Amino acid sequence: MKSDNSYFSGFLNDIAHLSYLPMNQHFLFRTFLLLACFALTGSAAAQTIPQDSSVQVSITTTDGNEYVGYIVDQTPEHISLKTETLGTINIPKKIIKTVQTVRKEQIVDGEYWYDNPYGTRYFFGPNGYGLRKGEGYYQNAWIFFNQFSYGITDNFTIGAGIVPLFLFSGTSTPVWITPKISVPLSKDKINLGVGGLFAAVLGEDDGSFGVAYGQLTFGPRDRNLNLGLGYGYAGDDWASTPTVSVSGMYRTSKKLALMTENYIFDTGDEDLFYLLSFGMRFIGRRTAIDAGLFFPTADGDFFAVPWLGLNVALGNPSND
To answer: Among 10, 49, 239, 253, whose Cα sits 20 to 30 Å from the Cα of 62?
Structure first.
């Protein structure tokens, strides 16, 4: 019998050879499939249960409940958790879905705030933070924009995305990969991110484009200001001037954050092109919904374009 890895590798090869994609673009398609499989299978990873009784944890169960407290005892059958409101409760291990360490910054005014499932990005653009090892997410915006991202390590995130226009009479289809290296210059205060978005339009010979960028984020994942600088390219031509971004996020409560994401482009004319935005993120335990307005400004025109996105957390971050 073949191993799971053999079946998986064979599946990817079959997909690639059956597709109509040019050979030099197979790697993009395979990367997208790999990221999807990493993220979807991550949530089934075995749980690591902290042994230190002084470490606060969050336990979610298969019936949708969540308990926060300290593990005071455990047997092969159950965990004894000391909680603030319910006292000490026994939770059968067979119904435990996840066990995660509660970090200090997740306790705000005595209340436990679960993670922002999409705290490494704003509406679209990234900040200096990366996904933690084992953590992933899926993003969908306006049905057609799809992206998976996964934390390979605490300092390296890889993503892949697609706008599946091939569903419409074989229309050329944009795909991309988004590697990012994140370096904490001062833990939870200043983070540096360096990466890029490298894209191709499948079905076109000269359809490559993208951007290489650097991001410097001041503040923690939920309350920060981000300054970015990037150089875009199309084919073999790189922009002669950088694109500047200024973005920010402020989490006002357990379930709501305010966001803004703004860009300044030099189009080569005398006037600069501005793309401004403002909106909100509605944060759930494993999902988040983004709603906002983008305001393109050029030639004196000013109008609003709505943004609606769904973010779903996948995988399980390490308990570091």
So the answer is: 253
